[in-house]
Design goal:
This protein is α+β, with helices and mostly antiparallel strands. The protein has eleven helices and twelve strands. It has a domain of 201 residues: Ribosomal Protein S5, domain 2, CATH 3.30.230.10. The structure holds alpha-D-galactopyranose.
Length: 403
């Protein structure tokens, strides 16, 4: 969290709206560490909130409208709080409109708001979930709504489904809300049991942003989800146990039944079943301090994305391949939906600088330009803040510690 950015945003708010913001909310982005496309298949994911995110500053307005300023984009939209509607021109505002529509039953009056952040857009770090969750927390405070993190995560997910057209799971929103400094978030997306586990102090994550964004990313993502649902239905017809989602299909079921299935569905299922296994084994490896083993699982996850799920691309593959021969790197894989975005790299703390230089160089050798490589820290989840950036209580409940 960048407190100087918070202060600059407070000043901009004051200049634009002639008064101070009364609500200061913050929500981080996330990295998906292991467990790819498992969330909507009711499976397992290891993830982390990161030390970059979005501020949402607001103050009640006299009229019925929301006036929303995106400080970084120098863009501004106005919409009635009772009927947020959808926008094509200021598409970024759809995440805020969607959360307003989902969280507010009969709201009046409107509010003025300003957003600002330090998450690269389209890098696969969930800048949209950070915007949704910071919006949601601000609304809780503005309208004295009950504080329920799962309900808030679902409101963000509904905004993605209905306002942005991405049929995502709950991973991004849950991680942004439940992150903990120095910890990974382990989520069971069937029971929504969420626990955190400490990361070894001598390891770091690098994020290598290819800057590539597949133009069909939403439709490709949705197509994978449909494949998974079709694969689950195919297994439900042949397995003895009941299969509500790919979560219920075991590796043995896959070995016995997959040869009789559509070949593409079988590969999609192999990815999800393999990822669920890798998360459970990976968690045990992390608990035992086995970073080599955990890193190997990251490489195996990426290979499965390439071959089974087909959600990688050449730029991501180049980085993962380069990582294999760089000293101090334990493992690397694509993170999030895929089809572009970022590769995450687990690296020994002492090797961060040298590994970053080598990754940039490897990318430049192939594509003529360096990719952006930044070190991210596992950070605390979303919170309402004091104007100075300290976490506050909501409805008497203590917030996450903010790093
Ligand atoms: C995106 C979605 C998540 C999840 C990941 C893939 O980040 O928003 O819900 O499905 O892709 O694991």
């Amino acid at each position: 969290m960048d407190l100087q950015l918070l202060e600059r945003t407070r000043q901009s708010f004051r200049e634009r709206f002639d008064r101070d913001a009364t609500v200061h909310a913050y929500a981080p982005g996330r990295i998906e560490v292991l467990g790819n496309h498992t969330d909507y298949n009711e499976g397992f994911v290891l993830s982390a909130a990161i030390d970059r995110g979005t501020y949402f500053l607001a103050a009640p307005a006299a009229g019925p409208d929301v006036c929303l300023v995106a400080r970084d984009l120098e863009d501004e939209v106005v919409f009635p709080v009772a009927q947020p509607g959808r926008s094509k021109a200021g598409a970024w505002s759809n995440y805020v409109r969607g959360v307003c529509a989902k969280c507010l039953a009969d709201p009046s009056p409107g509010f003025d708001a300003m957003i600002a952040g330090d998450l690269p857009l389209g890098a696969g770090l969930s800048s949209s979930a950070a915007l949704e969750m910071s919006t949601g927390l601000a609304l809780l405070d503005l309208y004295a709504l009950p504080y329920d993190r799962i309900a808030l995560a679902r409101a963000g997910q509904a905004a993605e489904h209905e306002y942005a057209g991405a049929k995502c799971g709950l991973l991004d929103q849950v991680t942004s809300l439940f992150g903990r400094a120095g910890h990974l978030v382990m989520t069971d997306f069937r029971s929504l049991e969420i626990e955190t586990m400490p990361l070894r102090a001598n390891s770091r994550f690098l994020v290598c942003n290819t800057g590539v964004q597949h133009s069909l990313v939403e439709s490709e993502y949705n197509a994978r989800r449909e494949d998974c649902e079709a694969a689950a239905a195919a297994f439900a017809r042949v397995c003895d146990q009941s299969v509500a989602a790919l979560r219920d299909v075991t590796p043995d079921d896959w070995r016995v039944h997959s040869s009789g299935m559509d070949e593409r569905m079988a590969r999609r299922a192999a990815h999800v079943i393999g990822e669920n296994e890798r998360v459970l084994v990976g968690r045990a490896m992390l608990q035992a301090g086995d970073l080599e083993g955990f890193g190997a699982s990251l490489y195996a996850s990426h290979a499965s994305s390439q071959n089974n799920f087909e959600n990688s691309c050449a730029e991501l593959d180049t980085l993962v391949e380069a990582a294999r021969s760089i000293a101090g790197i334990y493992g690397a894989r694509l993170s999030g939906g895929g089809f572009g975005g970022s590769v995450i790299v687990l690296v020994d703390a002492a090797a961060v600088e040298a590994a970053s230089v080598e990754l940039r160089a490897a990318y430049a050798r192939e594509y003529g330009v360096e990719c952006e490589v930044v070190t991210v820290t596992a950070a605390a989840g979303a919170a309402l803040l004091t104007p100075e950036g300290q976490p506050r209580t909501i409805n008497g409940e203590q917030q996450n510690e903010v790093t």
